[in-house]
Write a structure and sequence with these properties.
2 copies of one chain form a homodimer. Chain A has 233 residues and is of the alpha+beta class. In chain A, 22% of the residues lie in helices and 26% in strands. Chain A has 4 helices and 9 strands; from the N terminus they run ββββαβββαααββ. In chain A, strands 1, 2, 3, 4, 5, 6 and 7 form a 7-stranded mixed beta sheet that branches. In chain A, strands 8-9 form a two-stranded antiparallel ribbon. In chain A, β8 and β9 form a beta hairpin. The termini of chain A are far apart. At the A-B interface, β1, β4, α1, β5 and β6 of A face β1, β4, α1, β5 and β6 of B. The first copy, chain A, binds a DNA duplex (27 and 27 nucleotides) through α4.
Chain lengths: 233, 233
DNA sequence: TTAATAGTGTCTATGAGACATTATGCA
DNA sequence: TGCATAATGTCTCATAGACACTATTAA
């Protein structure tokens, strides 16, 4: 670690908060109030302050800019291309988080922030060549966050983080379908989820649907999913 | 991204170069010439210079400190605890890479660097409570690198990156055994590898062993491994 | 009744784990 | 000959995929 010039280099954190809304995977964005990229949409985030943990920076800036308080952030990766910010060299440590949208308005984004369906964004990295254009290299970060979510559904019980409790197996299945963009076989999905101890816990209650009422479940204690549910080749 | 105080914060890159040597997973370390942690062993790495890609910093400092030239680095994660470096706030972007050790001395570490078997290191994060103590939080980085390697063996053909060409299936199997620390069933492993198109390509040659001579193979073009080879619960 | 979704049961194909057996070198 | 490792064959079990069928509500 030889010391070289390291001034004029900023460190920031950005957060890709994902949810499933109206059957679509969505990400929380903020409309930028200032240049550069004024009025364009960007991930919430900001610079690291002295003696502040990176994850705390992510939580703090997320709360400041969107009003969302999320406690379990997961580091995604770090983006440091020299010209990714036109003002100066900024290395950003991106975090990803997953949340359910409940009916409590206190948990909804405020100010210039809102959720956007991934499908409505211009994300070349996901072969989406039209839609809302994002500031900086944030389309790349969103693409990586989406891939992280897709991968984690395979081998963890993350899907249940996207649904509000209590939930039905149909709702849980539609999370998989929204994130992976494919349809899953209802009966096999049920067998798999119920056959994994600790994935979900039955409440004994039922909820009305468009058809037969469905059993309600809560999240179980298990976080790993073994064997995994694989997306296929 | 509101601008706040961001001076006095350094950005560095560190590299965990992994290999399999004498049947053991090993990592390339450098004995520190200066304080802090003088004479202790650390990952090669150094500060990012102006307008330098993070990956280039990693490659450059690896080459400077160890003489190893590795072109395919993969970002591992970023470590930014406020006091991880006693001198100043330093955020380090860690990279991981995988290499085979051939007989060419040009590809061996030089100077104060050498490979250390993971088993000989003090890595609390891997429940290894005695052995060589590493500088900074590098035992955590090494632990994460080892876990990355273990995971990638499952769903990619990474294992072949650890063996010098040409290689036998026995050598390839011993890579899995060294990295995962378990023994694999020889016949099932062979069926799996040969049943995955593009994992290995037969050369037609054979190599002597302690028993029957073994067919020799080269790396194939496939990088994904489907279905994966799973370590088990 | 029909439509819609929840939920159960079962057949089959695939692939992993386990094991037996043969092949081929060397001491 | 015995030993060590390579290589092949096969049986079994777990599980995913597919599909048929029943259950329960609302319109």
């Amino acid at each position: 670690m030889a010391g070289t010039d390291r001034l004029g280099l900023g460190v920031a954190c950005d957060v890709a908060l994902l949810t499933v809304r109206r059957g679509q995977l969505a990400v929380l964005l903020v409309q930028r109030p200032d240049e550069p990229y004024r009025d364009q949409w960007a991930l919430p985030g900001g610079f690291v302050t002295d003696d502040e943990e990176l994850e705390v920076t992510a939580e703090r800036t997320l709360a400041d800019e969107t009003g969302m308080h999320i406690s379990h952030l997961e580091q995604l990766r770090t983006y440091g291309k020299p010209n990714r910010d036109p003002r100066a060299r900024v290395v950003t440590v991106a975090y990803v988080a997953f949340t359910a949208l409940d009916d409590d308005p206190a948990n909804h984004p405020v100010g210039r922030s809102r959720f956007w369906a991934i499908d409505d964004l211009l994300i070349p990295e996901l072969d989406q060549c039209d839609g809302l254009s994002l500031a900086f290299d944030h389309s790349l970060i969103v693409a990586d966050a989406v891939e992280r979510a897709r991968a984690k559904l395979e081998y963890t019980t993350l899907a249940s983080a996207f649904v509000d409790e209590p939930f039905t197996l149909g709702e849980l299945r539609r999370v998989y379908e929204a994130v992976w963009g494919i349809s899953l076989h209802e009966a096999n999905f049920r067998r798999k989820v119920l056959g994994t101890p600790g994935f979900v816990e039955a409440t004994g209650e039922t909820a009305p649907t468009d058809g037969r009422p469905a059993q309600l479940y809560r999240r179980g204690n298990e976080t790993r999913l073994w064997p995994p549910i694989l997306r296929g080749a």
